Amino acid sequence: MEGVKALKFVPGPLPEATVEPPPATPRGSPPSPTPEQSERAAKWASEIEDEELRKIVTKAVEMSLANAPSDRSF
Fold first, then answer.
1. Residue 62's pLDDT is what?
2. Stated pTM of the model
3. Who contacts 67 (Cβ-Cβ below 8 Å, separation ≥6)?
4. Structural Rg of the chain based on CA atoms
5. What pLDDT score does 50 carry?
């Protein structure tokens, strides 16, 4: 390891963090799924026998498909 000859640690309190977290940006209402996304979600969940579970999974898949294009911010 070139350049660093010694490293010394000194006991004591850590300095306070100086970076403030970014302000929370309010997210609007989630996007509504398109008819095609709803149809795809229903098709994927169609093999679930329990009707209540099938509805829950369908809704979750719809929301996931609707969020997919704009889910990541850089």
1. 94
2. 0.56
3. 30, 31
4. 25
5. 95
Angle at 64 between CA 60 and CA 70, to 5 degrees: 155
Q: What gap in Å lies between CA 12 and CA 28, rounded to an integer?
A: 45
Weakly modelled stretches of the chain, pLDDT under 50: none
pLDDT at 49: 95
Tokens for 18? 């100086």
Q: Which residues are CB-contacts of 40 (< 8 A; sequence separation ≥ 6)?
A: 61, 65
DSSP string, 29-56: SPPPPPHHHHHHHHHHHTT---HHHHHH
